[in-house]
Design brief:
By secondary structure, this protein is an alpha+beta fold. Helix 2 runs antiparallel to helix 4. Helices cover about 40% and strands about 20% of the residues. It has 11 helices and 10 strands. The chain has 2 domains: about 80 residues, no CATH class; about 220 residues, Bira Bifunctional Protein, Domain 2 (BirA Bifunctional Protein, domain 2, 2-Layer Sandwich), CATH 3.30.930. Belongs to the class-II aminoacyl-tRNA synthetase family. Phe-tRNA synthetase alpha subunit type 1 subfamily. Its main location: cytoplasm.
C-alpha cells in the first residue's frame, strides 16, 4: 500500500471519528461510537493499526506517527464526549445542592490484557502483524505440521486435553503460525497470541490454562542474527535498556537449531528463562508448501503470564484467576 493512500485513510478515519463523537448526544451513543472506532476487537483504529504491515517498510515510521496522532485525537474526543453527556441536565425542580449518589467504582482491564496489548504494541513497532486462531485444534495443526511425530511424548494423552471427536484444545499457539503460512505466501511477519491448554497441576508457577505469544518471520535470507536482534529489541522495550539476553542450546521438533531464551535485567544476578526460539525446521516449511531452499525463518514463543509476573514482581500465577479486587486494583 502506498504511504499517501494509507495516510489518506487515516485522515478520513480521524474526520469520521471526530464527527461521530461530536454528534453523540447520549451515553449510549458515545459508547457506540467508542466501540466502532476505539473497540479492542473490531474497532476501526485497531484495523488501521493492523494495516501497518501492508505499508512499505520504509514508510512505516511515517505511518506510525500519523496513526498515533489519530488515535490520540479520537481518544481525546471520546473523553470530551463522555464529559459532555455526563453533565447533569438543568431540569425544572432539580435541586443540585442535594447530596449525590456516590459514583460506582469503575473497573479496568485485567493485568494480562494490559500485558498482551503492550506486547502487541511493541512487536507492532517492529513490523509484526497480529494473528489469532481457534483454541480447538486438529492433530495436523497441533502436531503433524509442527514436525511432532506420532510417537513423540508431546502427543501423550496425559499431556493434552483431547476431545471425543479426535480434536484437542491447542497446547501451543504455534498452530496459528501454521494456519497463517497455509494461506499466505512469504514474506510472513506475525505474532500469534492466545490461550493454550495443558493438564498441569496448578501451583504458584503452573496452570492448566495460560497465554502465549509467538513470533514468526519467514523470508529470503532470514538468519539467527535476525532472531537475536528482534528479541533484544523487544526485551529492551518491555523490560528496560539495561536488559541482557542469552541463548542456550535446546531442542524443539519445529525449530532447528533451537535455543532457550534467558533474560537478566535491573542489575539482577539471576537469569530467568523467558521462552524458546529457533530457526524454523525445513520440514515445517514443507508442510505448509514453502520451499526451504528459497526461504528461511525464525520463530519464538514467550509466556504472557511469565512476562507479566516478572515485570511486576508477582509470585503466584493463581492470582490472575481468583478475581481478588485487592490484587487487580493495583494495575
Amino acid at each position: 500500500m502506498e504511504l499517501s493512500e494509507a495516510i489518506a485513510e487515516l485522515d478520513a478515519l480521524e474526520a469520521a471519528g471526530l464527527a461521530a463523537f461530536r454528534e453523540a448526544g447520549s451515553p449510549e451513543a458515545v459508547e457506540a461510537a467508542r466501540i466502532e472506532y476505539l473497540g479492542q476487537k473490531q474497532g476501526k483504529i485497531k484495523a488501521a493499526q493492523q494495516r501497518l504491515k501492508q505499508v512499505e517498510p520504509s514508510a512505516r515510521k511515517d505511518y506510525g506517527q500519523r496513526f498515533n496522532a489519530v488515535k490520540t485525537a479520537l481518544e481525546a474526543a471520546w473523553e470530551s464526549a463522555k464529559a459532555r453527556v455526563d453533565r447533569p441536565a438543568a431540569a425544572s425542580g432539580l435541586d443540585v445542592t442535594l447530596p449525590g449518589t456516590p459514583r460506582p467504582r469503575l473497573g479496568h482491564r485485567h493485568p494480562l490484557t494490559q500485558t498482551a496489548d503492550e506486547l502487541i504494541d511493541l512487536f507492532g513497532r517492529l513490523g509484526f502483524g497480529v494473528a489469532r486462531g481457534p483454541e480447538v485444534e486438529d492433530v495436523f495443526h497441533n502436531f503433524e505440521a509442527l514436525n511432532i511425530p506420532p510417537a513423540h511424548p508431546a502427543r501423550d494423552p496425559a499431556d493434552n486435553f483431547y476431545l471425543s471427536d479426535g480434536a484437542l484444545l491447542r497446547s501451543q499457539t504455534s498452530t496459528i503460525q501454521i494456519r497463517v503460512m497455509e494461506r499466505q505466501p512469504p514474506p510472513v511477519r506475525i505474532v500469534a497470541i492466545g490461550r493454550v491448554y495443558r493438564p498441569d497441576a496448578v501451583d504458584p508457577t503452573h496452570s492448566f490454562m495460560f497465554h502465549q505469544i509467538e513470533g514468526l518471520m519467514v523470508d529470503r535470507g532470514v538468519t539467527m542474527a535476525h532472531l537475536k536482534s528482534t528479541l533484544r529489541l523487544f526485551a529492551e522495550g518491555y523490560l528496560g535498556t539495561d536488559v541482557k539476553i542469552r541463548f542456550r542450546p535446546s531442542f524443539f521438533p519445529f525449530t532447528e537449531p533451537s535455543v532457550e531464551v534467558d533474560m537478566l535485567w535491573h542489575g539482577g544476578d539471576r537469569w530467568v528463562e523467558m521462552g524458546g526460539a529457533g530457526m524454523v525446521d525445513p520440514d515445517v516449511l514443507r508442510a505448509v508448501g514453502y520451499d526451504p531452499e528459497e526461504v528461511t525463518g525464525f520463530a519464538f514463543g514467550l509466556g504472557v503470564e511469565r512476562l507479566c509476573m516478572r515485570k511486576h514482581g508477582i509470585d503466584d500465577i493463581r492470582l490472575f484467576t481468583t478475581n481478588d479486587v485487592r490484587f487487580l486494583s493495583q494495575f
